[in-house]
Amino acid sequence: MKTEEKRSFIDWMLDNEVMISLLVVLLGFLCGTILVLAVGKNPANMFSSIFDSMVGIPKRDGTWNFRYIGETLAYSMPYILCGLSMGLPCRVGLFNIGAEGQYIMGMTAAQSLALFISPFPGQWFFCLLVAFIAGALWGGIVGLLKAKYNVSEVVATIMLNYIALYASRLICFHQPGATTYNTDPLPATALLSKFLIKTSNLNIGIFFVLLSVLLYWFVVNKTKLGYSMRATGYNKNAAKCCGISTVRSIAASMALAGAFAGLAGAIVLQGGAFPKGRIITGMDNYGFMGIAVSLVGNNTAIGNLLAGLLFGVLKQSQSLMQSRNIPKEITFIIQGLIVVFISLRSGLELVKLYRNKKKLQKEVLHK
């Protein structure tokens, strides 16, 4: 009886994607703990750094320091948005590796509007809007190429990442005050307000991130377009036979994915973390990390939100770890291990098939 219950629990685990995600995160932390022990450090300092990044720390005067919470949420914002950018095309059966390029084009568009147009009230909102549109256009190009001409979205997005990087540099070199690495500062009217926790970089972009998560959930689960996307992802040919426009589904998914990434670029730029406008010399890698976020979050809205927060916590805890004699590289290793374990999910599918086969054999022999 006990054996039967144990088998049922294992089967339940294998069928539950949420539990598998939690399991791989725990495995990542377990390996990180072993590594910390192996280098002769105290893993309690690692966990206390992560905990403090989530809840803050007390000040000497007895008040609570919320700055760490604000910084954690600020780091999480681009991770969540780039996770959504990866997750939506996955629902259509595509692999959007171009969130980094869409992120760059969004950032460049927002910066151009901020520096080329004279400051005006509400400028920050229009910067976000043009970033959203620029990202959508950059992602939509790949969607149309894939839908109309069956161009590999992987190759196209990789190439467009580099085109975006160098096109951004060319554009930014013509912006006011451009030097090798930066431009004039963005006007105050283009910056996002930090009224939530003024001592941190958390800004009102967090509301747009939450709206994006809500939009993702609504489009995928509650609209005809979302149904078409999911049907296309399950079986493109069957969807076509049912009268679903797969071209529209693919193009729309890539355009919306690009819009999320473009918004992420604008929020990073306008968040006030940089004293001047940026001329990027390399990629920020938020788009690539979005792939890991989406994999951990199972391409769902709430999953991406939680996975993005996890990656934000790990990012913020790096400085605390260093101050407590723990190498900050441990967080990169944990992130990498989580992705590796997630990629082993197909191995779990094999285990599930094997167990189902054995179960069927037993049932046949029993009869």
Tell me what the structure shows.
The chain has 367 residues and is an all-alpha fold. Helices cover 74% and strands 1% of the residues. The chain is built from 15 helices and 2 strands. It has helices at residues 2-15, 17-38, 43-55, 67-91, 99-116, 123-149, 153-172, 205-222, 224-234, 236-241, 246-270, 286-296, 301-323, 329-343, 345-366, and strands at residues 57-58, 64-65. The protein has a two-stranded antiparallel ribbon with strand order 1-2. It is globular, with a radius of gyration of 23 Å. The model has no long low-confidence stretch (mean pLDDT 87).
Overall structural class, as computed from helix and strand content, comes to mainly alpha
What overall form do the CA principal axes indicate? globular
Topology pattern, helix = H, strand = E: HHHEEHHHHHHHHHHHH
* Order of strands, widest sheet: 1-2
Helix content: over 70%
Number of helices: 15
Please report which band the strand proportion falls in: under 5%, 5-15%, 15-25%, 25-35%, 35-45% or over 45%: under 5%
The count of β-strands is: 2
**Integer average pLDDT:** 87
Low-confidence parts: none
* Radius of gyration, taken over Cα atoms and rounded to an integer in Å: 23 Å
Biggest sheet statistics: 2 strands, antiparallel
Determine the N-to-C terminus distance: 20 Å
Which helices and strands, and how do they pair?
Elements: H1 2-15, H2 17-38, H3 43-55, E1 57-58, E2 64-65, H4 67-91, H5 99-116, H6 123-149, H7 153-172, H8 205-222, H9 224-234, H10 236-241, H11 246-270, H12 286-296, H13 301-323, H14 329-343, H15 345-366
Antiparallel strand pairs: 1-2
Helix pairs in contact: 2-14, 3-4, 3-13, 4-8, 4-11, 4-12, 4-13, 5-6, 5-7, 5-11, 5-12, 6-7, 6-11, 8-9, 8-13, 9-11, 12-13, 13-14
